[in-house]
Design a protein that fits this description.
221 residues; mainly alpha; 0% strand
Length: 221
């Protein structure tokens, strides 16, 4: 079967020439694009992002209001019985593993960081249960963006837009960091995430309603 991918890529132009127009159009289309998790401070941000693994932001936001009223400092997470913390976060799934990660993280925050959430990816990824994606989200939301968050939406849309051919999130991030201007590293994932939720759906992308259809090699229009 003949592949139309090379022709499609030639039609829309090189990715370096398309990336800023892509960002500009998405910024207008999704002017409200921001993190969907609800938090009031840096500790709540870290906990929310850790709990969001393998579940939805909506699910996390149902749990965290009561959780954050009860646990206000790293020491509070350490003082509570393990079973109690497990029950408090149970609806987010994988609650035993997440409890171990939370307690390990709180212990390190107290012992190594004076109870404060660190800002660098190197320090954040030292925390138990905090991989690069979580670290990128936290650092970016705290105003210290050092990379590009790659979740399932960012991965899918980056591939469909012809910005990467990789499957591994770390390699996708490297590809994106080469072409996305640094000033957009923080907002770019939010724009792709919201576009992926609203328009570029996984099973049936709404190409006819997409502001990127003439910039996207995967467009069906």
């Amino acid at each position: 079967m003949r592949s139309f991918v090379p022709e499609a890529r030639k039609r829309v132009g090189p990715k370096r020439a398309r990336i800023v127009p892509i960002i500009e159009r998405l910024a207008v289309e999704h002017a409200d694009a921001t993190i969907a998790l609800t938090f009031r401070n840096e500790l709540e941000l870290l906990v929310s992002v850790m709990l969001s693994a393998q579940t939805t932001d909506v699910n996390v936001n149902r749990v965290t209001p009561a959780l954050f009223r009860k646990y206000r400092r790293p020491e509070d997470y350490l003082a509570a019985p393990v079973e109690e913390l497990e029950n408090d976060i149970r609806p987010t799934g994988f609650f035993r593993q997440k409890t171990r990660s939370l307690r390990g993280t709180m212990k390190m925050l107290v012992e190594d960081f004076d109870g404060q959430v660190p800002r660098t990816l190197e320090e954040l990824t030292r925390l138990p249960g905090v991989a690069r994606k979580t670290a990128n989200v936290v650092a970016s939301e705290l105003g210290h963006t050092q990379g590009i968050v790659v979740d399932t939406h960012v991965r899918r849309l980056s591939q469909r837009l012809g910005l990467t051919r990789r499957d591994d999130p770390v390699k996708i991030e490297r590809d994106l960091m080469k072409i996305v201007p640094r000033e957009y590293w923080g907002v770019f994932p939010h724009l792709l995430i919201w576009h992926g939720r609203r328009v570029c759906l996984a099973r049936r992308p709404r190409c006819e309603d997409c502001v990127l259809n003439n910039l996207c090699p995967s467009s069906r229009v």
